[in-house]
Amino acid sequence: MSFYDQLRHFADSHFLAVMVVLFLLLVLWPFRPGAQRHNHAAATMIFKDDTDGE
């Protein structure tokens, strides 16, 4: 088996699983317990020190 075939097999099997796990972690990260305070701070950050155009 050539080096290319080994890399291709790794990319087709293991790396796909790693990417799926990483995707799920990134999608579920904002919903973890205790993240509500950070999410609210990020959502209202653009309104901090807002002077209503004055």
The biggest beta sheet is recorded as:
none
Strand content: under 5%
Query: Order of helices and strands, N to C?
Result: HH
Q: Which ranges are low-confidence, i.e. pLDDT below 50, for 5 or more consecutive residues? A: none
Oligomer: single chain
Radius of gyration, taken over Cα atoms and rounded to an integer in Å:
21 Å
Structural class: mainly alpha
The outline comes out as: elongated
Give the number of DSSP strands. Answer: 0
Global mean pLDDT? 87
Number of domains: 1
Helix content: 55-70%
Count of DSSP H/I helices: 2
* Distance N to C terminus: 70 Å
Protein model, in words:
The termini are far apart. The protein has one domain (3-41). The radius of gyration is 21 Å and the shape is elongated. 63% of the residues lie in helices and 0% in strands. The chain has helices at residues 3-28, 36-43. It has 2 helices and no strands. With 54 residues, it is mainly α.
